[in-house]
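WARN no homologs supplied; continuing
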Amino acid sequence: MKLFNFIIIRLTICLIVGILIGHFIPFSLNASIYISCALTIILVIVFFVFKNNTQKSVWFGIIGFITMISIGALNTKLHNDRNFSDHYTNTLTIKDSINNSISFRVREILKPSKFHHKYVVDILNIDSTKTHGKVLLNVNKEGSEFNLKVDDVFITKTEFNEINIPLNPFQFDYKNYLKKQHIYHQLYVDDFELFLVSNTKHTLFGYASQLRKHIQSKLKQYNFSNDEYAVINALILGQRQDISKEMYDSYAQAGAIHILAVSGLHVGIILFLLNYLLKPLEFLKRGRLYKIALIVLFLWCFAIIAGLSASVTRAVTMFTVIAIAMNLKRPINIYNTLAISIFVLLLFKPRFLFDVGFQMSYLAVIAIVVIQPHLYKLYQPKYKLDDLFWNIFTVTLAAQFGVVPISLYYFHQFPGLFFLSNLVIIPFLGVILGFGIIVIGLASFNGLPKFLFDAYSWIISNMNGFIEWVSRQEAFLFQNISFNLVQTVLSYILIITTVLFLLRRNLKNVSLLLAFIILTQLYFINLSWINQNNEFIVFHKSRHTMLGFKENETLLVNHNLNDSILKHDNIITNYKVGSRIKSIDYDTIKNVYQIKNKTLLIIDSLGVYKSISFKPQILLLRNSPQINLSRLIDSLKPELIISDGSNYTSYQNKWQATCEAKKIPFHRTSKKGAYIYRY
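OK structure emitted
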């Protein structure tokens, strides 16, 4: 039976198409409602008109799929809070919100930054107006005496701030990332500006957070090291806020980051354990029904405790369907199961489609289902242990076929020793999870014996140590790989056509494979040709100056950074990856540059410009020169003035006002981002 003969798969594809249309094409919520209602009415009419006609199935199917696409678009609009009049962005002018009294409820606790505790909060009221919507709350760490808890309600008086745009080329777009989660603004407060109204729990998130806090407080009474505690917290409770950057990077570089994110792997192991432990219920009358109910209940309780994150929710949804099918003795079609879980998830949470974890999770599972059985047949193990490791290796390898292209697109790195990490850890992950649940349960009631604590601490410590060792094998870690969206799509097409060719070596599949190999080669030739251009860039770097001169695939960077800052700075790395740079040279900053037919003059803290004998078209102000900008403009008559991140904010405000009065373009990198001149 062909894959697309399954109705649920077709409907899921139509739903995804509708979500993409609703997300990228701007049209009103009302228009989407009218279109969906009209199509639904037409669908009903076609059903009754062609009820006894052989053509019914064709027309009914076509209109049904179009209707599902419209429902997907409508669903996307309905889940966009800004389409409703009571959303906070529709009830006030953000620019005039500085004196508003804001009431909010804490929804989610995020990983803190260097200077702020971070939370996602739900707006309840602005002054006396009842409203809703999510914003990002930043609480100053300095002098902070308490941490906010989920479901706490506070009142504060502050202003809504726009979320910063990326200020340098190819920088991570945090504003766009939050926008996909329907977060459009942020608040900055000190803790003394927050007034607690209520700490009563109202939601599942609040109760789950309270339970996690209780478990975490009990765990902290034992002498787990910081890294051990952080990994246990992530592995069992789905909370990664306490993981250090070094530990997170180690797991990522070892290709084992999925172990720290509660996902399908963890939920699948829990389902296996529950299915085994509850097997005696099958001997009771209606015992199978009780068993299903308990498994589903335990799975969703685990999801709630783990915070109902995107990865947990999608995994539990998928394994709920599998658990029901397994225990009803119905044949399980994994493609149907995947389609049902995707359909249900996107119906209730359409934004999951744009979640990186969602994409990688399902691509990995699909690759495992399609490719792993054929890889497994390449070798026939004779012993059970041999078979176990061969199974794990082929599953891991198949999953990589599914996630490597999209992983390169998002993260630009590939851990070459991913198979080693998974071969060592995954066989014991069931024991680690089961043991961890026992440890947490006993610790919660102050009943954890010392020998169990010592044993589990030893297991986690050795797992962390092994991961750190793998991550240090830098020769097998491939980083800073340039990979764009077109390459990602072409990679998946090549993987699909290669698999089709290996499964059925006929003329059609050979022709498809060769055609896409040629297409890919043509694209890479075109990409190399497109990259033959020149750019001048004034990067934004706080308190420093960085200038870039790109010629084809080489980059010259003039800067005033010391080596330690430059080594850990991502600005040049991001540009190198995004622009496909092959070689980089560094030099000091000069006073004058000739950029094709433009002359650039740099005026630094000395403010020297009166003795020059030429008229520069571009001025770059750096290190807060004490100059009379109005007089300078009258003297040099520049076409453009640039101010980089090395200048004081107060100076830049004055310069901007002067340029507006003189009608001279003023590019402020702290507001507009890096200045780029292509020639």
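The first strand starts at residue 101 and ends at 109.
OK
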